[in-house]
């Protein structure tokens, strides 16, 4: 429970279905002396307690600050140090919520771990588990959960994935839950009141050193403020004077240069992913057709997925895709079913 409307309604729905529900909230790392982690501010803790009291369920807070820092925050900083754009939310779900917290819930005698994610778990007639998109396409969070395995899905409940967001808020209002109109959380929870640029300045100043902006031929066009502040496909904020719009094509960490070019230089038809996992626990035996998604809010693109050794995979798009960004997750779908995903390693 986070004190938000989604996890609160998830608890309410499960209690209505006859489950014995216990509320768990995690205290996560925040900068010393700074704002509290957005997932567990004092107000959020109080809201979660009020919801638990309204539902008449036990409520406990667990301290995960140190493991969150070493697992999620350090991963975030290290990614930018390596010149990629990391996705810490995927790592948090994989290593914190659906690993450590799931194990803790089971050790306490629980049968399942339930969250307020907008996704669905489906059990087939053969007894296998599928991860499906949430009913509400605007809120679907299956992209963040592609690392789920059969063992995890067997112990996970995602009750709000069967509803759209407006229905969830209405359920909260109907049940007089005190968080029915609480705003949705935005941005990364551990950034506090600032943004990731200020955070990196404080915690990894070595990754925000200025350098040259060059075109594909190596011509110097200007100076960047630090490679960590740019992402593939970015157009605004480059500070360049050019007769045509320029886009970020590549970040060279060895020379600390930002490579830019025209829009027609941007599209990529192929990417290589590593740390690839499959919801079925087994890679396909041969190349298959999928829809590939390269960012949480990006459109899906028809593609061919080819499994490779060493937990790698190649994805070839039917059309060139802009904004393919090393470090981000790529997720493979077939319709509403999540096949799996991995971390974008490189393009071309």
Task: Give the structure's gist in a few sentences.
With 348 residues, the chain is α+β, with helices and mostly antiparallel strands. It has helices spanning 5-16, 42-55, 65-81, 88-107, 150-153, 165-174, 196-203, and strands at residues 23-27, 59-63, 113-114, 119-123, 129-133, 156-157, 211-214, 220-224, 247-252, 257-261, 268-278, 288-293, 301-308, 312-321, 329-334, 337-347. The protein is built from 7 helices and 16 strands.
What's the number of extended β-strand segments? Answer: 16
What's the assembly state of these chains? single chain
Q: How many helical stretches?
A: 7
Cα-atom radius of gyration: 21 Å
Helix content: 10-25%
Measured between the Cα atoms of the first and last residue, the distance is: 42 Å
Q: Strand percentage, roughly?
A: 25-35%
Give the averaged pLDDT, no decimals. 93
Please give the order of strands in the largest beta sheet: 11-14-13-12-15-16
Major sheet summary line: 6 strands, antiparallel, barrel
Q: What would you call the structural class?
A: alpha+beta
Poorly predicted regions are none
Shape: globular
The H-and-E topology, N to C, reads as: HEHEHHEEEHEHHEEEEEEEEEE
